[in-house]
Amino acid sequence: MRGEEPALVEALRMRALPEGSCDKLLEFLRLYRNAVQMIVDKIWSIDGRLSKRKLHRLFYSNLVSMGFRAHHAKEVYVYAESLVESARSNGGRKPILRKLSARIDRYDYKLDLDTMTLALKLHSGYEAKLKLVSSSERVGKFRGWGNYELVVKYDGSGFWVSIYFRRAVKAVKPRTVMSIDLNFDNITLAVLTLDGRLAKLKRFRTPHRKVLTHRIWVERVQRRYPRSWRFIKSVRKAIDRHGERVKNISWGYAHKVGDLVAGLASKHSSIIVLEDLDKLRENNKRGREFNKRLGLWIYRRIQFCIEYEAKERNLEVVKINPRGTSSKCPRCGKKLAKNKHRILRCRKCGFVGDRDVIAVINLYKKYVSKYSRCGVSGVALNAPKPDENPSGVQRNRDDAMKTHLVI
Ligand SMILES: [Zn+2]
Question: Mind listing the UniProt keywords for this protein, alphabetically (predicted)?
């Protein structure tokens, strides 16, 4: 997968007060919701993913005849398809839309940050004008950014808009590659030069076990009161409290690690190589090492923060299919066998190494073989313990941990 041009995307969410009557805006939101539902109903029974072209052919003229503008129509069918797609991948039921919200393309609105006004183009030639409520400080940040899409919502008491802004960042020319492997207990990263010399190896502990404990507690309580937990105040409160903890721990950690990792990458002018988590479904790593009950959301959250912080520092991020990276020999490519706890061994060439370090080297190699012609040679590595400074790798009782890896 090609790395995207680094760009920062941020949403500005604020209250919006309609100038004059809001009848037409509400009418539009209802029409939009019904149109999305209609398409969801129709494509739910169709197997497989529909291309944009197919969606266009199936629904465009119908949507336009309902009064939608060209870009409304596109937003409606793309949104419907994404709802179906995500419901299917979660094994869920057909989505039923209740909330009033619409995604609007940048061709269908006019935004003026000086006067804080927003004009929306609605169905059948109608327009709605809204006054935006936000501090000039929050808004000022987005001057000079490009705005491209917005979401308008009605929550029963009033309207909200989230405007998406994007700023292109000029990528730093990478001098090194930083590959990152996310695991249940630790995050392992390696910084390697383009000719395969190791510049840094580091491990961070994760709080995932703590998060899992809170989760298990919640699940247990929900199982004990399967129908009633929502209605018993004390139980619901306790569940909320644990949920808050999970949120705080995971976001707090993700922000901290994102900042640390990107800071390090900036110091080494690295391009950051992450595992493409979408490709994990067919990968056996998920079943074994990733804890199924915790799910992938926690890894996505960490990746999100790493990417965000990297882009703030003008660093490029690429995602690589992690298939085989934790099971194949980085020297000869043969499947590795388990030697000891966390240690893998190659029966063909005798290579021995730490599981997570092998994963980061393989990610690095995959990246290099994909994006450059120069080969990788002479990587010498020692595996550090969590939070240990790898440049001064200490003596370790475990022989395999200090085995010299030469690939
Ligand atoms: Zn081998």
Answer: DNA-binding
